[in-house]
Structure formats: structure tokens, C-alpha cells
Specification:
heterotetramer; A: 621 residues; alpha/beta; Pyruvate-ferredoxin Oxidoreductase, domain 3; Rossmann fold; eight-stranded mixed sheet; seven-stranded mixed sheet; C: 300 residues; 8 strands; binds thiamine diphosphate; binds iron/sulfur cluster; binds magnesium ion
Chain lengths: 621, 621, 300, 300
Amino acid sequence: MGGVYAYTDSGTARNNLTDGLDAERNYMSQFDLKIAIGGAAGQGIASVGNILARIFARRGLHIVAYNAYQSIIRGGHTFLTIRVSGDPIATHGDTVDILICLNQDTLDRHIVNLRPGSYVIYDGEKLKPLEAPAKVNLCALPISELAKNPTNKMLSNTIAMGAALYLAGFDIDPLADSLTQQFSRKGPQVVEENLGSAQAGFDFAKEHFSPLAHTIPAEQQALPVVTGNQALAMGGAAAGVKFYCAYPMSPATGVLHWMAANGPDLGIVVRQVEDEIGVITMAIGAAHAGARVMCATSGGGFALMTEGIGFAAMTETPVVVIDVQRAGPSTGVPTKTEQGDLWQMLGASQGDFPRIIVAPTDLADCFTTIPETFNIVDHLQCPAMVLTDLLLSEGTGTVHPDVFKWDQKIDRGAMITASNGSNGDGPYLRYKLTDSGISPRAIPGLEGYIHVVASDEHDEDGILISDEFTNPHKRQAMVEKRGRKMEAAAAMIPAPQLEGSPGAEVTLLGWGSTKGVIQEAMAQLNADGVTVNHLQIKWLVPLHSDEIDAILSKSKKVFIVENNYSGQFARYLRSETGFNADGHIRKYDGEPFQPHHVVDGVKELLKGKLTQYVPTHEIMV
Amino acid sequence: MGGVYAYTDSGTARNNLTDGLDAERNYMSQFDLKIAIGGAAGQGIASVGNILARIFARRGLHIVAYNAYQSIIRGGHTFLTIRVSGDPIATHGDTVDILICLNQDTLDRHIVNLRPGSYVIYDGEKLKPLEAPAKVNLCALPISELAKNPTNKMLSNTIAMGAALYLAGFDIDPLADSLTQQFSRKGPQVVEENLGSAQAGFDFAKEHFSPLAHTIPAEQQALPVVTGNQALAMGGAAAGVKFYCAYPMSPATGVLHWMAANGPDLGIVVRQVEDEIGVITMAIGAAHAGARVMCATSGGGFALMTEGIGFAAMTETPVVVIDVQRAGPSTGVPTKTEQGDLWQMLGASQGDFPRIIVAPTDLADCFTTIPETFNIVDHLQCPAMVLTDLLLSEGTGTVHPDVFKWDQKIDRGAMITASNGSNGDGPYLRYKLTDSGISPRAIPGLEGYIHVVASDEHDEDGILISDEFTNPHKRQAMVEKRGRKMEAAAAMIPAPQLEGSPGAEVTLLGWGSTKGVIQEAMAQLNADGVTVNHLQIKWLVPLHSDEIDAILSKSKKVFIVENNYSGQFARYLRSETGFNADGHIRKYDGEPFQPHHVVDGVKELLKGKLTQYVPTHEIMV
Amino acid sequence: MTSVTIAERPTITAKDFQGPVDPDWCPGCGDFGVLNSLKKALAALGKAPHEVITISGIGCSSNLPGFINAYGMHTLHGRALPVATGVQLANHDLTVVVTGGDGDGYGIGVGHLVHAMRRNVNLLYIVMNNEIYGLTTGQTSPTSLIGMQTKSNPFGNMDMPLNPLAMAISGGATWVGRGFSGEAKQLNQLLQDGMEHNGFALLDVFSPCVTYNKDQTYAFFKERVKKLEDNGHDPSDWRQALEKAFTWSDEEIPIGLFFENHDRPALHETEPVLQKGGPLVHQSLGVSAKQGQKLVDKLM
Amino acid sequence: MTSVTIAERPTITAKDFQGPVDPDWCPGCGDFGVLNSLKKALAALGKAPHEVITISGIGCSSNLPGFINAYGMHTLHGRALPVATGVQLANHDLTVVVTGGDGDGYGIGVGHLVHAMRRNVNLLYIVMNNEIYGLTTGQTSPTSLIGMQTKSNPFGNMDMPLNPLAMAISGGATWVGRGFSGEAKQLNQLLQDGMEHNGFALLDVFSPCVTYNKDQTYAFFKERVKKLEDNGHDPSDWRQALEKAFTWSDEEIPIGLFFENHDRPALHETEPVLQKGGPLVHQSLGVSAKQGQKLVDKLM
Ligand SMILES: Cc1ncc(C[n+]2csc(CCOP(=O)(O)OP(=O)(O)O)c2C)c(N)n1
Ligand SMILES: Cc1ncc(C[n+]2csc(CCOP(=O)(O)OP(=O)(O)O)c2C)c(N)n1
Ligand code: SF4
Ligand code: SF4
Ligand SMILES: [Mg+2]
Ligand SMILES: [Mg+2]
């Protein structure tokens, strides 16, 4: 039996809930610290995360933060993990060194997962830990004693930060600076309360505990902290986006918020539209008029855009749509991650036409991909879909400041923007049949280039061949003209490269946002004596099938890692190459892979009894 | 290079324009007659076609009619071919025996394609043939002399029919009966004019020409003449559809028109909705309330429905959507055929979920498929897409009256429709985790079964696990529950069967509406000494991959025939099986395959120089 | 449908509509008031929970069906009305209540609203209008006032807000009202009347978002709302109704029943199949041999 | 944009707008009248063809851009308005004329219409209202009258028709008119006024479908239409405008300018980026090093 579920019936195993958390996996920097903060929505967790992230990033440490949250404004359970390292990192890691619990629920959920030597910080007067695993340090703070103002509930967060910084081996000054900055607009009293409380937390920890043993790297150039959505938006600005329109949808709304806040300064018109159909069609209108145009949504909003994607293709209008994937189908789990929209991108809209699909692989790549993609779509005059996911788009981390290159090449392709444009002989033909399939496009308003673009099939001059003048030969020529444009596409992008030793036992194959987790798993596996190399696919359409096939055919065993149920990439790869992977590591519970999930999966698959491994998420969020 | 165009770069040849029309290809019945009528929209061509079709079908002959028309109400060029045979037939064939030209344009376009021995009928007073091929009989009618009322322009059609019937070897009576019936409501004078004119045309032909040489079979049981859309609608009625809603869209509107005309009598509520988003969501509402619900659209309308498809999947609501494919992308060519929506069906909506996709293979199958599909979706509680195309849905032909079985099995699956329904112990759980993944559904209004269905992810009891109660383990269980439902699907449908000799040189592989043309090509090829067998795929999801693979792996050479540019089925098949075909025969000019296109393609591909053959449509319509 | 006759019914109270989980709305959210009044109104009308279906789109307000004990559908963003139309036509014995937000109903879903109104589908549509997108954490909605600063308009909204009541009155809704979740008693009555009305009833409710809308707060409305019934408004007069729909000032924002029209049949009453055969889901399926023969005969 | 100043302009006539092919509408179709009047109105305003863009959806009426010499976009069914909004905001030097049918604009596209009106996008929207779906060969449209028999309602339509003018007047359109393709002179004037209006102008035009609508024919309208300007109508008074919008009888179907409001800025005038920098397509692209540094600094 088969169908779209063809791959999923093969034997599947679950990892043991506590498996993989016991082993020490600090194979990277000397300095690698993981702090987690849990509590209810509305308890200020994101702000604790932001303060800590900035503190570390300002002294040049690398951070990655992942927030497991829910679609409610107050209550429920939010769990933010922030990992800090002396070296560049790409995931929030596997374990927690310091757990800050803002409510009992957090203590109950997470204490069982703590490793020996780790700390749990909580309000000792209000919360009671369940039995903790051996050698976990219970750091119960007497909050009411330490707080400098008993009516300010948020001070407990400040106290916990003070304690955490001591345990992490840092001094208090950067926290003091941050708090001063953060609270100065609320007046000196609030600043004082916060500074005093932070100090009290710090001192209490100093008195009762010894800090984690690691060497803190010397202070370096400060690093910017960015979310994937911000990086995408900034990439858009750098690429020369002049018109951004969107309809709010988690987890893509961050792009809109950045654009709305910065657009007016940057000369970008930003419009919130009535729905996603309006978004894509307004985007196409503005793009046809000559602007570089971007929009972003998530899977459900993209579904509404699909008719428009075909319209862009038929009129040959370049437009870039970001789809930030979340757990589906349908409304699904709006605050959880998944790589479940690939086939929606591949199948968006009826008929055959050129499209670009690209899945950025990390935060820096979110920025870089946008100008790259615009140059391609302007050249090919077709729509592009940029496929990220909640993990990447709402994920937060440091990137090197040089990533933000503002002098991007802006190549608008064969575009006529002035009346003395390169019309050549004869009347202007918007859809001139050329060898490349690319026909110079003139923007409306120019004398001498009048033409009509249509969603109906048309002739070289734009006149419809769908009504009175149907003609199978012209129709065939137009289909082939559009199709030919894809021949140039592959040459515009680099082929994917194998990372790691070519002769390795296992090749891990992933796409998009899983790059970091696979790399980290690869390092761990290699350290564990399992030789692994890695191929990450960014450009999905066009796909460098031959190059990929050449790499994979030399691999000993290929395991595909993806964050969905049905193996959307595995099936797509097979449709393009016929290639069958040896094993699959999949996750579709809403939470992202952690490195150990992949490590465990590889080891399990190597035993040869399974073809598919599905880890069970240990952290209950 | 690859991407969605992977297959299309391989060497492609064009047939010569007149190639394949010269050879005699009457390998079927002793009696095989092709009449074509051409003119402008508004000249009454469809009505001539209908009259002739009924005349032949009433005496038990088999007919197939295909109308090449345009998206205008008056003017342009319409070309209707009607083929009549003593044996069952499935295509309108390759050639024309009698060409009726209602305007000069038709004469100019089509006379060049006529074979020796054929006839061209036209108004000799108004139209002038270009040079005709040798031995074509020019049957110029003196219309003004023969017409019984000079002011009634439509009489020239009647005269032409009279002449055509004589040339075809029939007598005039059935035409007289038809005309009487057709015009009786316009009064005796109009009837008289028509009868007299028909007779005049008949007599004129008798006087000047000898009829075609063939034996006319004895009169048999009359056969019903039906379009694919009518058959789909009737299949819906037979399946127990109680609610039909749609938004008009060519070429799917015929289903709506049939339903609107017959629904009230049959107890079917028929609603025209404001758009296709409204259609699919209204359909889901009615289906959730307990009705069997169907709707139909074409690719652009389906694009708007995709978000709803995911909603049906998530709420586990059975609903059947017909997509009648037309030439895309976008508005494309609304009156032309294509098999270009397969990937849209495969990719419709974000996330992974069960869906059924079925492509009926002929007119009778249009009827039969609908009750089959309803029983499957009621069992699996998921959406189904029925994929036809303009060729099949607007194509007209005879079917055996026994095809219309009205005592269809109606199996609504695990459905609780009364308060004493099978609830078992404990509270009712709409999404109970079961081995099969199927959970009994209760319709709203029953005491004891209150529940809420949601597009958000939910627990067994329907309570959301997307907001406050997110839980990766429950999420995983729910994804797997829905996925498990597909395990039952394949067993509910028959595996495809190879037709023809298993050891043949070539296996022709097609899907959906191309069955007839491939069968006819196979017969021709076998007659020409090229042994060919044939595998036609109807059920696309689930796909019997193993069975198909087993058949194809035994084939010597597999050529895939499909009516699109990018090889949507070839790519899908490869995604499911890894199977690579040896050659491809594709057409994407808006017109359907004719048997000789496939015959020529096979012969060309067998020469070994090409992997893809694209015929050029000879008939300029 | 299996239902008991009124005489045998046990007394129904608001408690019977207590949902399986507590609402996860922010403390103080206006939607609590709507939910409570709805439960009371249903009880006051003597509806049994299984006779009622609430249908919503997506948004904070659209979470309501999960918080009430009744059949429910939590559909797609903006699509509650066509779903509800399907439900209502398939089983017109059900009491259909549609609930949602201003973004859901007046933004992405407004096209369906326009058509549902003119078709006079028999249902009550409650729009919890907080002049903001709540669930997506605070963007401009179609009813956000000019100048309002939101995450999507940090420099102030410049799009003129939509006037839902004027649109409904001039668009064919046969019952048009506005409530305020701070006016529970009137709201309860409006909900009852709207459910009793045969045809399309639109009830816009000011339901403050305490988290994201700092402009249109409880206090804002408390100061301004004036009850139509206190001022001799005649809801059968569309001119008066429109006049009041366009009234919005610091002195007066009218609430109450703006307009009603009892002269038009509801959609299901215009469907011969339903008039003949009763609720569709209880009618028999398929085609008899005789009917079938007639259909085939037409083809010959 | 390269354009000549008015003084240097060659005289423009309707002929300059002659399209590349003849319309393939049925002989007698009302849309011919609209096309002809539009060409004349454009010429009367002295527009050069390349300064104009016509944007349509899908339908017989939506084929118009193919039949006039101007820039054009023949978009998706129901989506002309958001496309046009994008064009207008990207280049507000263009004269944007949107054309389409009643099904396109009041049916599938009505949600966009509602929002485009309240945003006051500067364009003229011409709806060729034939009370039927023409291109799809004759189904009920949102303006089809009750009782009308069509292929999708062979037993007679029962849905109340939508009143586009009432919707526009109460929905924020700043210029609302109705023409009749049998009244060429008035139509020409209305088209000119609508194009000259700064903001959203809706012009509904009775444009008979001679092939599928046998009820609302030329004769039907000829007998009933009355010109507003002949009866002292005051288009600045929304109450009068609504009164007239609801007038539909065998004695009077008003045509002319129903309503206008010059007090609201058009959408592009509320966009600071456009007010500062002129048409967007002519502004420079990208981010300077200095601006970029500021953006990165915010992240540290
Ligand atoms: C197609 C689609 N687009 C966007 C969203 C994201 N979304 C969810 S709720 C919402 C707006 C909610 O606003 P409103 O209807 O006013 O409800 P409130 O939360 O204010 O009660 C949006 C935009 C979605 N779920 N689906
Ligand atoms: C998404 C979508 N649904 C349906 C159609 C089919 N369609 C084309 S035109 C049309 C209606 C046209 O009616 P109207 O807008 O009134 O234009 P008219 O032909 O009467 O001028 C429809 C339903 C389509 N093109 N796209
Ligand atoms: S965000 Fe606003 S609308 Fe949503 S629950 Fe909170 S207060 Fe209510
Ligand atoms: S069908 Fe009607 S609307 Fe279309 S062109 Fe013909 S007359 Fe005009
Ligand atoms: Mg809201
Ligand atoms: Mg129309």
C-alpha cells in the first residue's frame, strides 16, 4: 500500500523517555551553558530571556534561545531555553544546567530531567520540588526576604537572574547595566528595587552554592541578537523591498512587526491587508507596477494564496512569499514547529509553471537568502516561496555582525523602467518567445510599451489565446517558453556540498532549519565513534538532482532527518531522483529535534532493525 | 538540473503535421463513422451534435463526441467531432469522414486534413473551398434553393444534417422524428420547414453523391447519451448526496446545472455559493451535520478550497470534491483540457493528513466512482478529490444503461445518528484513539454525544491541545491516529490490472481520462505489429505501489502517457516507487490526445533516440 | 432528531451549559461576559445543550465553543458563516449560534457576512468586537479607530473603520443589535431575542481586550454607551436604525436593538426540499429505481 | 515617469484608446457601451494611453482591458481590487480604472470591495452589472432579482439581491454613482467624474447581457431609469443618497451621481513614504550603510 503515506508504515521505535539525557555531551566549547526558565504566560519569561541573551551577547558570547510557548496570553506553560557558548552554536542543546522555575508546574514538569551537578532555582517559600534526581542542587530562594519591594511581583524574576548569573560564574555588573537600561523609563525607584533584588539573589547564591565549573572566555566584540523573522525582514530591506504586505499569522507575524516599525524610515510601504488572498494579489499588483515586493504568512494563509501563485506565474511577475511553517494540518498547533508545508509549496496552484522554493538553513541564512531569491525571481520573472519554520523564524540567536551586508547586489533582470528602454525592433512584445524563455518586462506608465498581462493564456503580445484566438500551437509554445526559464535557474544557485568525511559510515540528509541540529549530532556521533557526514539542502526547486544523486550514491547509508510525519522531503527527493534512503528520523510532535534525538536515531537505525526512528520528546511543554 | 521540471529537458520531437492522418486506421468495428461540424459560436453546432448523437444512440449505436470550443458566446471557431460505431468506443478517433462547414473559416482550417474518400458539406453559394486533397468529395449544397424558409438561418444546419445522413448511409426517418420533437413547441410551421429542408438536403446528396461504403448494424436497444459531468452528478444522486453546493466554473459547471435541474425532485438541496471558499466550508458544515455532500470546481476554484481540505482532514469530516481540470496555470485556457492538477491535489493544504484522490477513467466510471468514493470517505472520515478533466467531463458519449445502478451500497461507516447509538462505556470521545485510527462520529443534535470539532489540534475528547494544554505526546498520538486511517484505504479499492499481453514489447501507462485513447492506440499498435499492453491508474491516493511496481518491473519498456507538461504522474509515481519510465508521451496544447498521437509516439520512442515525444495537434481549433 | 417535548423537559439552567474546561482568556477579557450571558440566554430560552451548536472562526473570541457545553465547531479564520449555513441547511432543527471576532467576521470573513445577511440564514451571529486582533497579539482590526497604535501600525492606523451595523442594516440582515459585555442584562436579552429571531441576526458586542486594546476599554464604553430602548428607538424603521448606526461620539454610542424586519422568510424556508421533507439529515438517501429510470430516460 | 506636460500634449481622442483587437462580446452586449464611453471619457480628460491602467477580474466584462489601448491587467476572478491597490500604491501617478462584473465584484470579490472602500483607494471601479454570470453561460449573480430563472436556479432565485449602492454609501466609498450603458452621455460624464475624484469611486453600470438575461433588458431599463440630476438630488447628503439607493420600482430606478464626499484623504495620501518620496517605483532601493548600522545596533 502507498499513497502519500508510503514511507510511514515501516517499523518505528520510540526512545526511552530519559534515554540520551544521562550522557555528558559537552563536545564543543569549553564554555557551554544552558539556562531554562519556565512558568506561565504573563510571568515575564520572554523578558528574562531577552535580558540574559543581551548580557551574554554583549560580551561576545554566542547564544541560541528557543521558547516553547502556547497560544494563550496568560497561563499555561512556557519554557524558554537559552544556551550560551564561547563558540558559534546552532541549537539550544540537549540539557539544562540551570533551571529557573517561576511556578510549581515548571518544577513538577522539568526537575526529573535534570542531570547531576545542575541547579534548580525557585521561590523556596512558595514552591516545593518533587523528589529531584541525585546530585541536583536545589537552590531555594527566600524571595520575600530578598525582594526590595514586596508588591512588585516581577522582582522574583530579577532575583532569580541574579542567582543564575552567580551560578554561571559571571559577575553582576552586566545585569545591573541591563536592568538600569530596561527600567529607567519607569523611574529611579524601580531601578533601585531591581538592582537591589538582583544583588540579593546573586549574594544569596554566592553564600549557599558554588558556581558551575567552566572557564569564561575573554570579552569579545558584542554580537547582535536576532530572530529568524527579523533576519528575513532585514534581508528584505537589504534586497530593496519597497512594498511589504501581510495579514497577521503566527509564526510569521514577526516579519510584519519589524516591517511596520522600520518601514517608514527605510522607505518601505507596509500594508496590513484584509486577508491572504488580498495580500498575494496586492503584492502582485505592486510587483507588476515595478516594486520589489515581499509578504509572509504561515501554511493556512499560504493555502489561500495558492491561486495567486499561479497568477504570478502566468503573468510572469516576480514576487517573494515567505511561508513560516507550523504544526498542521489546518489551524493545527499555531505555536509549534514542523516542516510540513513542502508539498503544499510543490503543488501550489493548478497547472505546470516555474517556481522557486528555498529553505534557509540558519539565522544568518534567513538574511542572506532574501536578496539571493529576489535576484533570481527578477531574472526569471516568477514567484518564489521561502520556507522557514517556527523553530527558525521565532528562534533567537547571535549572528556575526558581518552577516548583515547592506551593499547587496540588486539585479532586477530584464526590466524596462524608462521609455528609452531596450525595445529593439518592432512593437514591444511582453511575452516575446526567446531561447531563455525570458522576455523583457516593461513597467506600466512608459510610453511605447503598452501591454496587458493576463491570467488567461496569451500570445507573445499579451493578447489572449484563451477566447477567440485559441491555438494549440501557440499554447504549446507558451507553456514551453515559461518552462524554459527554469533551465537558467539551477546555474544561479550553488549545488549543495557534503560536509564531513566523504567515506563516513552514515550520511545525514536534512533540509532547511535542521542544519544546526544535524551538525551538532554529527559532531557528537563522530566523538562517539560513529563516522557521519552531512548534506543539507537549501534550494529545493530547482533541485540539483544530479549533484545530490552523485553524492548520495557514494554514501554508505543515508538517513533523512525531517520534522514531519510523512517524509515530505524524502518523497520529493525520490520523485526527482528515484533515490531511496536507508533510514528516516522523523519528529512531528510540535517540538523541534534536539541533537540527542538525532544521535539516538542514528544509533538505533544502525542496528538494522528499523527503517524509521521517531524520538519521543522528553520535555513536557 | 531538476526541480519540478526534472523530466522535461530530455530530447523531444514533434510529429509532422500531416503525419499519421494518411494511414487507414479502421481496426475496430465494421461500422465506424466520424462526422465533424465546424463554425462559429452561436451557429448552433452543439444542437446539431445533439440531434445526430441522439439519432445514432437511439438505434443502439455507440457514439463519442468531443467539442473543441472557445470561451466566447458568439464568434470564434467551434469544432465538434462525433464518432459513431457498432462497437463500444472511447475516443472521437483520428479522422473525419464527413465534414460539415458552417463558415469559410472551417473550410479553410480543416479541408487540408481530409482523407481520400471523405466528404465536405458546405453552402456552395457562400463558401469557397481552398484546394482540397485528392479524392475528397466536395458536397456543395445550394442552401437558398433547398431551404424551406429563407429567413430562418438555422435551416442550413438541418439541410446539412439531411445530406450527412444520406452520405452516412442512413435513412431520413430518425432525423425527421428528432426535428419534430425538437421544434414542436415552436409550432407546426417551424416543424414543416425543418422536415422539408432536411429532406431536401438528403435528396440533394442522394442525387449527386454515393454514400460511404459500410454495413450499418441492425437496430439495437437504445443507449443513453451522457456527459461526464452528468454522470458524476447522477453518481452523486445515486450515492445519496443530499447537499450539493458549488460556484460556477468551467468545465465543472455541468454538474451544478444537472443538480440544479434535478435536485429538488430528488430531495437534494442545491446551493450556489458566493465563492469556492464558501463552497468547501459550507460543504463541510453540512457534512458535519450528517449529510452526504459533494461539490465540483476546476483548478482555480480548487486552489481556493485547499485551506478547507485541511480543515476537513483535521475535523475528520468526509466530503467529496470534484476537480475538473482545464489547461493552466491560472485562468489558463478555460475551454481546453489538461491533466495538470495532480500535484495541486497531492499538495493541497499544509501538514500531513489522509486524503483520497481518484481519477475516473471513462464516462461510465464517472458514475461508478462517486458512490465508491463516498463509501471510502465515510469510512475513513476524510476528504476525497475526484479528478476529471474537460475531455472527460464535457465529453459526450453513449454508455450501457446498466451502468446506472440505482441500488448502490450506501455505507456510512462508523456514524452515530441516534441517541441510542453505540457509545460504549465512558463519555463519548469524538477522536477516540483506536487501532484503525477511525473514531465513531456522532452527528450534532443527539443527546449524550456533545462534542466540539476544531481545526486546531485536539485530544481524544476534542479539547484543544493547541492552546493551554499543548502536549507533544498527545500531539504525536493524534498525528499517528489520523495517519493510521490510510492503512485501511488500499484494501477498500481494487489494485490496477494490466490489460493485454503480459510479455508485450511496450507497456503504456496512463491515468484517468486517457484510458480510451491508450486502449485504441494499443489496438492499432498491435495491429501494426508492435506488441503493447496497458496499465491505467484510477486510484492515485492510496496508490497500490507494490502491485504497480510488480507489474512495471516485469515490463520490457514503460512509456507514460499524460496530458501535461511536467509529467505530474511520472513524478508522483517515482516519489512513491522510485520507478523510472523509459519514455514519455506528453501533450499540453489544450487539445486531447487522439489515438494516432500515442501510436506515433510509441513508434518514435521505440527508435531509441528520444525519451519524450510531444505530438503536435494537427487540427487547428 | 431525538428530542423531548417541552412539557417533559427538565428545567435548564446556565450551569447546564458549563463547558468542559475553563476559558483560557486573559483575566478581565470582555469575552467572559459574552459567554456568561450566552449560557444564561440559552437557559432562559429553555434550550437543551444538545439542541444547540456554536460555530466559530479563529481568534480569542472564536475559542468560545470550547468553553460551553453544546455541540460546537471551531472552524477556519473567517469561515464560520458558510460552515454554519451548511449546518443550518442540513439540520434546521438545531439552534445555530455563530461566535467570533471583529477580525474574523468583519475582516477576512466579511464577504461571507455580506452574502449570509442577504440570504437571511437563520442563525445568531455574535461578533465580539474588541477593535483589535487579540489572538495574534495586537494588530489593527477592521474596526480599529483612526490613530490607534498597534503592532502592525505603530505610527497609528489610517484606515477608516468599518461600520458593521450600517453594513448589516443596509445589507439585508433582518435583526441587527449591539451589546456591551459590561451590560450583562441587556446583553442577555439581546442574545435571547437574536436567537428567537427567524432569520439572520447580527449582534455586535463591545468586548474589551484588556491586554492589547488600551483605547477602547471598559471605562471608555461605560462612559459612552446609551441604550436605544431608553430613548424610544423604533427598530422597524431602517432610516432611524441607520441614523443610530452612524452615531458614535463621546456623548453617545448607542447599544440595543437597532433594526428588525419580520417580513422575509429565512433561507431554509425557501428550500422546497426542506419544506417538504423536514431536516435534511433525517431524509432518506439515494434514488429509487423509478426516479432513476426517469433520469436515464431524459438521456435518450 | 517620463511624461509630457499638459501644454505639450498632442490632442487625444477616443481613437487613441482603440484596442489591438475587437471585443468578442456578443453583438448587442451592454459592455460595448461602457467601453466606448470609457474611451471617450479618457480622451475628454486628456489622458495619454500609457498613463492609464485598466485592471479587471474574470468575466465577460472583465475582458475589457484587452479591448482598450492602455496598460492593463486581467487578473483573477474577484481579485481586481487588491491588485489595483498594489498598483496604485506602487505608482500613484497612474490613472487606475478597475472594471469587472457583478459576480466578480459583488460576489466572490465583495470582501475586497468592502475594504477598498473604507481605505479610500484612489481609483474608479466600474462594475458592469448585468445581474447574471455571463461568461459562465448564465447563472444567478448576487444582483439577480428574486424569481429570476437561471441555469443554477431553474426554479427561480430566492436569495435577496445585494444593493451595491447602499453598501457603498454606508461603507465609506467617497464617490458612488450608477450609469446605464444605454445612456451614453451621462455615462461618459460619470466616468470622467469618477476618474477625477480623489479616492474610491464606485460606478455601477446597468450593462445588459443580451444572451442570458432576458429579464433586465435594455427595454426594461429604458422604461424605468430616471436621472438623479434631473430631480435635484444632492449627492453630498448621505441620507438622500441612501433613500435613492433603496429606490427600485417600475416607476423609478435612479441613475446618476448618488453620493460624493471630498473630505477624506485617499489611501496613498496617508502613506508617509509616498508623501515624502513620490511614486514608490521611482524611489531608490535598499538600505544605506548608515541606516543598516542603526538597524543592527537595535539588536545589541
Ligand atoms: C488564514 C488565516 N490567517 C491568519 C490567521 C491568524 N489569526 C488567527 S486569529 C486572527 C485574528 C483574530 O482577531 P479577531 O477575529 O478580532 O479575534 P480576537 O482574537 O480579537 O477575539 C488571525 C489573524 C489564521 N488563523 N488563519
Ligand atoms: C476562482 C474562480 N471561480 C470561478 C471562475 C469562473 N468564472 C469566470 S467568470 C465568472 C462569473 C462572471 O460573472 P460576472 O462577474 O458578473 O461577469 P459577466 O460575465 O457577467 O460580465 C465565473 C464564476 C473563475 N474564473 N475563477
Ligand atoms: S488577548 Fe485580549 S481578546 Fe484575547 S483573551 Fe486576552 S484580553 Fe481577551
Ligand atoms: S454573454 Fe452576456 S455579458 Fe457576455 S458578452 Fe454575451 S451579452 Fe455580454
Ligand atoms: Mg478582535
Ligand atoms: Mg455579470
